[in-house]
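Hey everyone, long-time lurker, first post.

I ran two proteins through the pipeline my lab uses and got sequence/structure pairs for each. Pasting them in order. The first:
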Amino acid sequence: MSDRLIQAAIVLLGVPAALVGYIALVEWFVQRLPDKQQPRVRPWLWIGPALALLAFFLVYPTLNTIYLSFLNAKSTNFVGLDNYAYALTTSDSLNAMRNNLLWLVFFTGVTVALGLLIAVLTDRVPYESVAKALIFLPMAISSVAAGVIWKFMYDYRPAGQPQTGTLNAIVGSVGVTPQPWLIQQPWNNGWLIFVGVWMMAGFAMVILSAGLKGISDEVLEAARVDGANEWNLFWSIKVPMLSSTIAVVATTIVIAALKTFDIVYVMTNGNYNTDVVARRMYTELFNTRNYGRASAIAVVLLVAIIPIMIINIRRFQEQEAIR
């Protein structure tokens, strides 16, 4: 117990003391520089520790992963592009990429559309806060917990047996044959995507609702005076003025779709043609212990995300230039 108290004291007192000492040292050094150089040097020294941590925890692992992707399973011999050929040509990998494409299209499209629809329908209604709180509630749980919940919801027993799954109990009560939701292909991917939409629709709703409230009432009233109905207001004013917000939300959802892992891993473990790229990487790393192939798949996933991030950064720069 005494060792833990000492460690806690070091963390609580030592870290702030080290930070204050670093700042004092930086200022002591900067004050001895020429006046013209001080404004240029001070920001870099102040953010120096953050840049060092960023390099250690992000840049170095990324470069090391790229390096490992050119080595064999045990990282002992150079194999060139063999791991990338495996990641881009084998049936298992192609199936995972196809499923990721389904997530990319349907998860993103449905989540953004549903979030926008809910934001518009609940805007300025008496029960707005309650409705939004209930829709946002799934964001309070983890993807693993959501996967466990919906795995029980989709649970299947053969016809004639007691149904423990909520959905099959409901359809069975009206005389419909119980359905193997997570086994029946290709619809099982859709049911997995639905779980992702259930979780992320609240996030999209909150961001889009904030953007919606930023639209001036005077603009909407002027359009109504000119004869525009609510449908015209939505497509001609609200959607164009929310375009930047929609782009930010869509970018976030796209990245989440490309990195999908938890829901698939918990609910099907990639079986029944539901595998995705992130789970494929996990299998190669922890099940087959092939570090080269796992690294190659990770690099492919990184390359797929980079263009989206570049687009998002450019859009942010354009908005800052307008401001």
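...and the second, right after it:
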Amino acid sequence: MTRNCGIDTERLVSIDSIVGDSEKDTALLKQMAVQASDFLRSHQWCDDIESQYLGYGVGGIVAVFLCLISAQSDDIDSCLWVIVGDIPPAYIVANENPSPSAALESYIEEMMAWVVAVEEGHTTEELIPVNAPATAGYAKELRGRLEFLRSKILPSMM
């Protein structure tokens, strides 16, 4: 188990040991691991990433990483899931999501709330941050990707 995390890392893959279904998939998953760590390090509260594991990944589409971080404050969770891919990157608190599938499900729910708010013309200030403009066109595109994740990816993770 990872320190202060409670997540069983035995079922996860250290980023140094990532192997995909092909050479291309392996390269994509390793690139996504870098994207995940770069995303976390872009936040001022993240001092360093102590450990990083792949929980699930489909190269170029979606990957779910467990990251143990050292943070600037004890108020910051030290264990986060980071979701990256052909979707907006985000982090999900690990202590509320004990598995990669739970983390991806939470990600989909949070992003779908953003999509619905944009579609209905509501503010997104209190919702998960999305690195894209809050436009109807982008919301429609993101909705399609989220529906794909929910219908095709999540079932394969169970």
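Reply from user beta_strand_b:
Welcome! Quick read of the second one: Residues 92 and 107 are 7 Å apart (CA to CA). The first helix runs from residue 23 to 41.
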